[in-house]
Amino acid sequence: MNCIDTVRNCILARDLIPPRSRVLAAVSGGPDSMALLMILSELARDMQFELAAAHYDHGIRCEAARERTIVERYAARLSIPLFLGSGNVPAEARRIKKGIEETARLLRYDFLEETALAWRADAVALGHTRDDQAETILHHLIRGSGWRGLRGMQPRRGLFVRPLLGCGRSELRSYLKSRRVRYAIDKSNLDDAYLRNRIRNRLLPYLRKSFNPSMSEALLRLSENISEGWETLEKPLRQLIPKTDPRGEIRVPLDGMETFTDFQLYLLVDLALRERFGVLQDIDRTHFDAAKRLIRSGRSGKAIHFPHGIEARIEHSEFVIARRGRERMPPGEAIIAAEGSYTLPWWDLFATVERVRADEAGALSSATEGRFARIVFPIRVRGRRPGDRIVPFGMRGGKKLSDLFIDRKVPLSKRDSIPVFEDARGIFWVPGVAADERTRIVPSTRVAVRIALFSLPDKI
């Protein structure tokens, strides 16, 4: 069975991607994620789902620019939306006092969740493989994990799905070779300073050579066996947790919970935190004990705090888990590769882009439509940044975008909700604020690009 069939069967067996879904693929530019992108693109039409890609730059490695270029190239080749995000992981790690790896994971998942919500995705696809699963189980075993940790990664966890868990790395690289797909190699995977790399590069090869040539398969069987028992325990508790937006509240009636064992309460809280809020780390026995005491007390008005901005409280006859509130991430980026229709999720907009005859285009721009000469694809749509400048129509010199916002009396609270359009030559349009002089349509202009913006309708 080839990788395409393996992934298709996994999706169907686990109902990971129902027909007419929207799927956001997390693509780093490495071999596994590039295989994920290409395989899903081959399956999208037949399985009737819509595909987009998301790429996050952690601000750590010098190879990031090449990885981003690879992802942009293939997203354009496949004619799918691409959303870009970035962060300063070292600075954030110092701020929250966590390691680089853990901070990178938190920022990446935060970006993926925000992007999925903005694009109204039904699932975020991750590129974890069968080899990753074996390494994860060993990692958890070394750290003294409980029963749950020995299950390894699950094909579905809330919004996130892993359709490649049935495929090995070597199979995926053979697939990429057969399709002549390029990818980047993350050199940090060779650094044995990280425990995960020591497991991959040293421990697993040693176990295969000295104890069991099929060590990975044995670990996967362990995962499957434990998962069957775990799912039997979790099934009745899942019915108590409503399927809400990942940032919404969960309310569970206290009536009936008085008969739950301590372990059932632990499972209930764990399910809520993991599958509805994506909290995978930093929850320990003290947090579960505090939640247990809160539920047992049944006293309305009492609350406890979990890590990552989550709180649990009693409201009248309900146990409530909710976010205490968090700032919205700044807008990411969307790429307009050529003519066509595009969703701009951070601004709740839909854009149509087409080439028109210049004598039909007109010369003015507004908050919802612009006609431009001499722009170059791809077009990047992003949020404002410090130092942004543009040469407005009729002016000879550039002007700071921040000054233009003041001149146009744009409220501070509205400025992050206005998209900035730029090409390789710089910013050329800020809808409702300014268009760049270099894109003015003049008598010698033959062809122009028309961009029209529409409010994104609510998803039905």
Annotate the secondary structure layout.
Layout: H1 3-14, E1 22-26, H2 31-47, E2 50-57, H3 64-78, E3 82-86, H4 89-96, H5 100-119, E4 123-125, H6 130-142, E5 156-157, E6 160-161, H7 169-179, H8 195-210, H9 215-238, E7 250-253, H10 262-277, H11 285-297, E8 303-306, E9 310-315, E10 318-323, E11 333-336, E12 340-344, E13 349-357, H12 358-361, E14 369-372, E15 379-382, E16 389-390, E17 399-400, H13 401-407, E18 420-423, E19 426-430, E20 434-435, E21 447-455
Helix pairs in contact: 2-7, 4-5, 6-8, 6-9, 9-10, 10-11
Features:
alpha+beta; 460 residues; 21% strand; 38% helix; Phenylalanyl-tRNA Synthetase, Chain B, domain 3
Describe this entry's structure for a reader.
With 460 residues, this protein is of the alpha+beta class. It folds into three domains: 3-226, HUPs (Rossmann fold); 240-323, Uridine Diphospho-n-acetylenolpyruvylglucosamine Reductase, domain 3 (2-Layer Sandwich), CATH 3.30.465.60; 333-455, Phenylalanyl-tRNA Synthetase, Chain B, domain 3, CATH 3.50.40. It has 13 helices and 21 strands. It has helices at 3-14, 31-47, 64-78, 89-96, 100-119, 130-142, 169-179, 195-210, 215-238, 262-277, 285-297, 358-361, 401-407, and strands at residues 22-26, 50-57, 82-86, 123-125, 156-157, 160-161, 250-253, 303-306, 310-315, 318-323, 333-336, 340-344, 349-357, 369-372, 379-382, 389-390, 399-400, 420-423, 426-430, 434-435, 447-455. An eleven-stranded mixed β-sheet has the order 5-6-4-1-2-3-11-15-18-19-20, sandwiched between helices. A four-stranded antiparallel β-sheet has the order 7-10-9-8. A four-stranded antiparallel β-sheet has the order 12-13-21-14. Helix 2 packs across helix 7. The radius of gyration is 25 Å and the shape is globular. The chain starts with a helix and ends in a 5-residue tail after the last strand.
